[in-house]
Structure formats: C-alpha cells, structure tokens
Design a protein that fits this description.
This protein is 12% helix and 29% strand. It has helices at 63-66, 76-81, 139-148; strands at residues 2-5, 9-12, 19-20, 33-38, 46-50, 57-61, 90-97, 106-107, 113-116, 121-124, 136-137. The strands form two sheets. Strands 3, 4, 5, 6, 7, 8, 9, 10 and 11 form a nine-stranded antiparallel sheet that branches. Strands 1-2 form a two-stranded antiparallel ribbon.
Length: 160
C-alpha cells in the first residue's frame, strides 16, 4: 500500500504492518490506523504514523530502553481486549515530546501504548496509581543510549 506522509514523504508499506486502534488514541480518537516507522536518523525514536491523516505522526520510544525499572501495572482486561496471550507478543511504547530545546524532551510514562504484535491491534492505557509521570524528562537517558551506541529496533521493521 502506498501512503503519503508529511514527515516521510510517500512510502510503501505492507498491509500486514497496519496497527488498528479500535478506540483511537486519547486526543486522536478519529485516527484508528497507524504504522510504526523507524529511521536510522532518529533512533532510538520511532514514529507512529497515522494512515488516516498524513500530518499526524507521533514520536515513540521503548520505555525499557530508558528506564529498566519501568513496570506499569496494566489491567488484565487490556490484555484480554487486545487478545494478548504471551508477554513476548506485546510491544510497549511511550509517546515522546521533542521540543525545539531538545534538552527538555519528555516521555509519557503514565500512558503507555500496548501493541499486540501478532494481530496488530493497539491501545493506549492510562495507568492508575504508581509514580509515573506524564512528562518524564528523558534527555539524559537518550544521551546515554546514543553515547553508548545501544539502540534497539523496538520490534520495528526499518523497511516498513
């Protein structure tokens, strides 16, 4: 399938790479179809690109790369809703905000995005309780990743 994007231009993706968010994402409820993109230039960040609007693209990152002790408590109903049977079938991402002053970049650890990698369904979950922040500073953690050369593909197909 050929898609037009504002950030990446025209790209070709496989229909099997389309991730469906039945309820959309909070604040973006009308956008339900996305694809996860990766570029060498922006690692360790990836992009959740809307297929419903070429202008909508969210920077996302694997929170475990930043904080090894990140352990969000996700309700069992979410796993049931997404039909997740095995933990290795779930990809957890957090939305990142990268402002002009990139030293002030943050990640939303309070509302992780879960994606079932077997059936490509997803949901953003707003955590209840816990000590996670909506705007967790991440500049120092990103700097460590980049300086150490350790970037993960977070399950993203760079050819998508």
């Amino acid at each position: 399938m050929q898609i037009a994007t504002t950030r990446f231009g025209d790209i070709t993706i496989s229909d099997q790479k389309v991730i469906c968010f039945e309820e959309g994402l909070p604040g973006l409820e009308t956008f339900r179809r996305f694809v996860l993109l990766s570029t060498e230039d922006t690692k360790p960040f990836h992009w959740l690109q809307s297929l419903d609007d070429p202008d909508v693209s969210l920077a996302v990152i694997n929170p475990y790369q930043l904080f090894s002790d990140y352990k969000p408590m996700i309700a069992e109903t979410v796993f049931t809703h997404l039909d997740i049977e095995e933990t290795e079938d779930v990809l957890v991402l957090t939305v990142a905000v990268i402002p002009q002053d990139f030293k002030k970049m943050t990640a939303n650890l309070l509302a992780p995005i879960l994606i079932n990698t077997k059936n490509n369904t997803g949901q953003q979950v707003i955590l209840e309780g816990g000590d996670y922040s909506l705007r967790q500073p991440i500049y120092n953690e990103i700097r460590k990743i980049v300086c150490e050369g350790g970037t993960s593909d977070a399950g993203v197909d760079p050819q998508a």
